[in-house]
Amino acid sequence: MRDAPLVPGRHADVRGEGERLLNRLRAVNRMDVDRRLKRLVRRPVKAALAKILPALGRFYPEGFKFRTSLFWGERMTVIMPEGFLYVRYGYYEGYLTGAILRMVGRGVSFIDVGAHFGYFSLLASRLVGEEGRVHAFEPTPRTFEVLSRNLGGKRNVVLNKCAVFSGDSGISLTDYGPEFAGYNSYVAPRTGGGSLGRHQPLSLRVQTVTLDDYTRDWGRHPVFIKIDAESAEWEILNGMRQTLERLRPALAIEVGDFQLEGVPTSREVITRLLGEGYVAYSVGADGLVPHKLQESYAPGNLVLLPAEGWG
Predict the structure, then answer these.
(1) Beta strands 64-69 and 75-80: pairing type?
(2) Which region, left, alpha or beta, applies to residue 32 given φ > 0 means left and ψ of -120 to 50 means alpha?
(3) For residue 142, what are the CA distances in angstroms to 87, 187, 203, 216?
(4) pTM attached to this predicted model
(5) CA-based, 20 to 30 A from 154: which of 266, 297, 308, 310?
(6) Could you tell me which of 242, 245, 233 has the C-alpha nearest to residue 213?
(7) Listing from the earlier edge strand, what are the strands of the sheet with 287-290?
(8) How far apart are CA 100 and CA 96, in angstroms?
(9) What's the Cα-to-Cα distance from 236 to each of 88, 176, 191, 270, 303, rounded to whole Å?
């Protein structure tokens, strides 16, 4: 399910490329919330493709690859039918996209944990410029191949075919096929008990790395870490204690409780970060607003910043 419509933000700290792209994102979103007939008149090809491609993708056991345009004009390869949201709207998770546009600028090191097809890494590559770096992590071989297509030619991007975790001994990962690659996990999938279709799950052994090891030689500078790792958040935090203490990065972390055995709740994850001297913010149409800790969480994203400030 995509985000609710965006509205113009009130943040005054948006500058340059980020500001221009934020305005573009708002314009694209306004088109998407117009009446259905007006959308068909304005973008008939995309409206038709959004209906045809998901159905077409189900006939391809290895997924149907399609190249589409993102809201800032860059093109990205996706696997259908999972990638249909990128084709239909040109963006994904609009609120989080807006937060990244407001916060990430030149010289920042952007760490994308769970990069998937590379949407956020592509966006960050444009924002951080030659002075910054994007470090993308994706462990699933099939998904990593698409990620490489999208980002392999970027000089400011480092691609890592591994999972971020609490140690470097590797983990067993279940690949649910091209239609449901976003659910690939080392534990049960976050479906709320729903089915993942007709594809036979594939068990893989994947390499792992800790962020403490990966960033061991980094000097203190602005670092933004996006974590979307399908229930591995707690283990990732176990492997980045020194990173949190030494680099004091900004964090965008996926939340959502699915009552999976052995997986800490989102409240536990957020409480842990609050104990590390972080402040939690909800990600909304107007940017970041102070977050009140909840007993349970629906799927979404929070941003956490060091209490002493970031950037």
Answers:
(1) antiparallel
(2) alpha
(3) 20, 19, 13, 29
(4) 0.86
(5) 310
(6) 242
(7) 157-160, 133-137, 109-113, 223-227, 250-255, 300-306, 278-284, 287-290
(8) 6
(9) 32, 22, 21, 13, 16
Q: Which residue has the tokens 């061991």?
A: 216
Return the CATH number of the domain spanning residue range 93-306.
3.40.50.150
236 within 8 A of 166, measured Cβ to Cβ:
yes
Lowest-confidence range among 48-62, 120-134, 273-287? 48-62
Cβ count within 10 A of residue 181: 20
How many Cα atoms within 13 Å fall on the side-chain side of residue 93? 18
| Burial class of residue 150 in the structure, from the number of CB atoms within 10 Å of its CB (0-12 exposed, 13-18 middle, 19+ buried) | buried
145, two tokens: 């191949």
Residue 170 neighbours by CB under 8 Å, 6+ apart: 205, 206, 207, 208
Digit-coded pLDDT (tens) for 2-26: 333 333 333 334 457 899 999 999 8
Give the rounded percent of residues in the chain with a pLDDT score beyond 90.
61
Length of the chain: 311
Q: What is the 3-state secondary structure (H, E, C) of 241-269?
A: HHHHHHHCCEEEEEECCCCCCCCCCHHHH
Closest C-alpha to 306, from 246, 250, 267: 250
User: How far is Cα 3 from Cα 256, in angstroms, rounded to an integer?
Assistant: 15
CB 267 within 8 A of CB 294: yes
Task: At 42, list the tokens.
Answer: 């304005």
Q: What are phi and psi of 57, to 5 degrees?
A: -60, -25
d(CA 172, CA 165) in angstroms, rounded, equals 12
* Calpha distance 102→299 (Å, rounded): 22
Distance from C-alpha of 255 to C-alpha of 40, rounded to nearest angstrom:
34
